[in-house]
């Protein structure tokens, strides 16, 4: 019986699934965005978010725990260096899944999973686009406009 076993097995054995998720998490940490199927992205999100939460506290114990999951020194260094400083104030939700359509060969739903703090397009950028006022009227100086108004009134 499979009571309370809600995670997606992804059609793989336990060892294969753990190795695949570890490799995908390493790629996500190093590249900040990867393209995969929707089912794998949802499984990866459950796998990688606790790892990122653990990186907020930079201790030997947390580094060893993360290395035990990822098995990649460069990914651990990147996670505890650059990524942990960006997510230190975020209370969770470090990843975003963006659906990109369906794969041509088998019609699998594809998506991109990315780290939230690294997408400059979706971040609320500080500099707003300046609204330019466009008009068909010719630009006259305000003094000339005021002089014409007084002439028409008189």
From TrEMBL:
GO terms for cellular component: cytosolic large ribosomal subunit. Keywords: Ribonucleoprotein, Ribosomal protein. It holds the Pfam family Ribosomal_L17. Residues 130-140 have a biased composition (Basic residues). Residues 127-154 are annotated as: Disordered. GO terms for molecular function: structural constituent of ribosome. The keyword Ribonucleoprotein applies. GO terms for biological process: translation. Coiled coil: none annotated. InterPro entries: Ribosomal_bL17, Ribosomal_bL17_CS, Ribosomal_bL17_sf. It comes from the Bacteria. Belongs to the bacterial ribosomal protein bL17 family. Part of the 50S ribosomal subunit. Contacts protein L32. This is Large ribosomal subunit protein bL17. It comes from Porphyromonas circumdentaria. The gene is rplQ.
